[in-house]
């Protein structure tokens, strides 16, 4: 027969063990909603050991236009913090936040202090200086002789106006009245931005949940160390192919090109939501021949037939790359896995 004393001892021991479990006895962790898989991954890394964020957009969907499912709308409505790239990437989310998440803290990552931003490119063919030398950080994005009327017709729903001037985002960032028209929103493809955003995410979480601030900070620091190693590995992998010209289906990779010194010669389409016109296709075909393009990069959701048409009669190869990592498992390791896979695909195609 078990004595009362031994039973109480066992209960106390179980209670002590439960109390030692991660998260036990801590304040309730904020509910977090995120927009795209790479941002979800960064938030998951910072929240590791405490909770996990929600993703309110299906992997593989275009971020530029999306209709949330009821479960995704519910996750947004119940969020204490919404972490998103910004309206330049997901314009539909701005209204949804204003309607469903009026009491949530919002973190717009393109607005985070120190984020390196590049201006949106509208021309079909890119000048050599945009992939070489200074890695494109201070380009003037001059006109390269593209068909003005054709490009104007293809302007997408990002809301970019005709002012494509350089944005020095590191200066005077405290003034949030500045105009973001012309900013390329694919900034997560620069690992330095991702490392900076880890800290911004940790700070936002800590303001809402100060009791776990030390955990958020430690996770962000560990994530930054992982991204530093990622940066070094990708740079070494891509160094032999930096001068090899390539084209992409749509212009989503400027930050990746700039960070690792790659030579992008142009983009078939202005965005993933607009079909290229005849003048743009003619310009790209000429660029492929003039620059000796080695490879054309498409994405899983796009018609490979258009890429084949552009490359017809050339020796250029093709490869499929995905800036969102739609096919990869979600979680804290998603960002690094997506970036490594992107780098390997680029290196293999350009080096082949």
Structural description of this entry:
With 352 residues, the protein is α/β, with parallel strands linked by helices. It has two domains: 28-114 and 186-232, 3-Layer(aba) Sandwich (Rossmann fold), CATH 3.40.50; 128-171 and 242-321, Nitrogenase molybdenum iron protein domain (Rossmann fold, 3-Layer(aba) Sandwich). Helix content is 40%, strand content 10%. The chain has eleven helices and eight strands. It has helices spanning 4-20, 37-46, 70-77, 91-100, 148-153, 191-208, 213-238, 254-260, 278-291, 304-311, 334-351; strands at residues 32-34, 54-55, 81-84, 105-108, 245-250, 263-269, 295-298, 317-320. A four-stranded parallel sheet has the order 2-1-3-4, with helices on both faces. A four-stranded parallel sheet has the order 6-5-7-8, with helices on both faces. Helix 2 packs across helix 6 and helix 6 (191-208) packs antiparallel against helix 7. The chain is globular and about 65 Å long. 44% of the residues are buried.
Question: What labels would you give this structure?
Answer:
352 residues, alpha/beta, Rossmann fold, 2 domains, 4-stranded parallel sheet, 8 strands, disordered N terminus
Please outline the major beta sheet: 4 strands, parallel
How are helices and strands ordered from N to C? HEHEHEHEHHHEHEHEHEH
Radius of gyration: 23 Å
User: How would you describe the shape?
Assistant: globular
- Low-confidence spans: pLDDT under 50, at least 5 residues? 1-25, 128-180
Tell me which CATH architecture of the largest domain applies here.
Answer: 3-Layer(aba) Sandwich
Percent range of helical residues: 40-55%
The CATH superfamily of the largest domain turns out to be Nitrogenase molybdenum iron protein domain
Structural class: alpha/beta
Number of strands: 8
Count of separate DSSP helical elements: 11
List the strand order in the largest sheet.
2-1-3-4
Overall pLDDT score: 82
Q: Quickly count the domains.
A: 2
**End-to-end C-alpha gap:** 75 Å
Strand content: 5-15%
């Amino acid at each position: 027969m078990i004595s009362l004393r031994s039973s109480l001892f066992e209960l106390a021991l179980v209670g002590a063990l439960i109390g030692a479990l991660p998260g036990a006895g801590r304040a309730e962790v904020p509910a977090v909603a995120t927009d795209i898989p790479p941002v979800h991954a960064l938030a998951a890394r910072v929240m590791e050991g405490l909770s996990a964020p929600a993703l309110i957009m299906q992997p593989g969907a275009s971020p530029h236009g999306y209709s949330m499912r009821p479960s995704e709308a519910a996750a947004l409505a119940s969020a204490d913090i919404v972490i998103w790239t910004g309206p330049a990437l997901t314009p539909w989310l701005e209204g949804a936040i204003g309607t469903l998440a009026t009491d949530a803290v919002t973190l717009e990552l393109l607005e985070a202090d120190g984020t390196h931003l590049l201006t949106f490119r509208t021309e079909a063919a890119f000048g050599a200086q945009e992939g070489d030398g200074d890695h494109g950080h201070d380009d003037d994005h001059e006109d390269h002789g593209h068909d003005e009327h054709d490009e104007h017709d293809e302007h997408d729903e990002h809301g970019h106006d005709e002012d494509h001037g350089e944005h020095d985002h590191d200066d005077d960032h405290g003034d949030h009245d500045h105009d973001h028209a012309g900013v390329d929103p694919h900034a997560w493809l620069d690992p330095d931005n991702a490392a900076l955003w880890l800290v911004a995410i940790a700070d936002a979480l800590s303001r809402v949940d100060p009791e776990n601030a030390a955990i958020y900070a430690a996770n962000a620091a560990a994530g930054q160390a992982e991204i530093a190693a990622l940066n070094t590995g990708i740079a070494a992998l891509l160094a032999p192919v930096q001068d090899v010209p390539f084209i992409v289906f749509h212009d989503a990779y400027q930050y990746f090109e700039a960070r690792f010194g790659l030579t992008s010669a142009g983009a078939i389409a202005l965005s993933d939501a607009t079909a290229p016109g005849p003048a743009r296709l003619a310009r790209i075909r000429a660029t492929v021949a003039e620059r000796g393009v080695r490879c054309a990069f498409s994405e899983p959701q796009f018609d490979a037939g258009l890429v084949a048409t552009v490359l017809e009669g050339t020796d250029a190869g093709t490869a499929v790359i995905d800036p969102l990592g739609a096919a990869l498992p979600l979680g804290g390791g998603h960002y690094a896995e997506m970036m490594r896979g992107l780098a390997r695909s680029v290196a293999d195609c350009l080096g082949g």
